[in-house]
Amino acid sequence: MSVAKIIELNAASKTSMEDAVRAGLKKCAESVKNIKGAWVNEIKVVTDDNGTVVEWRVNLRVTFVVE
After folding, report:
1. Where are the transmembrane segments (predicted)?
2. CA-closest candidate to residue 60, choices 34, 33, 40, 32
3. How far apart are CA 7 and CA 66, in angstroms?
């Protein structure tokens, strides 16, 4: 029988939402092993005064199997 755990984290990118997800998972994988998947809970953008997107932010729920 395996046991899975879910942790929540936030990540950001100036490029895209996908890049923010990749960056968050890459950083998470430095200390968390057996990552099996992730949900994107929330997406937020930071804009300048003209409404141009300057940063993408995501809230992730990462699932991993506990050894």
Report:
1. none
2. 40
3. 12
Residues of the chain with pLDDT under 50: none
| Element (DSSP H or E) covering residue 37 | strand 35-47
Cα–Cα dist 46/57, whole Å: 8
Q: Which residues partner with 12 through β-bridges?
A: 57
Which tokens hold the place of 4? 């899975």
Alpha-carbon dihedral sign for residues 34, 6, 12, 32? negative
Match 């809230």 to its residue by tokens: 59
Name the pTM for this structure: 0.89
30 — phi, psi (to 5°)?
-65, -30
For residue 51, CA distances in Å to 12, 17, 19, 47, 65 come to 18, 17, 20, 5, 41
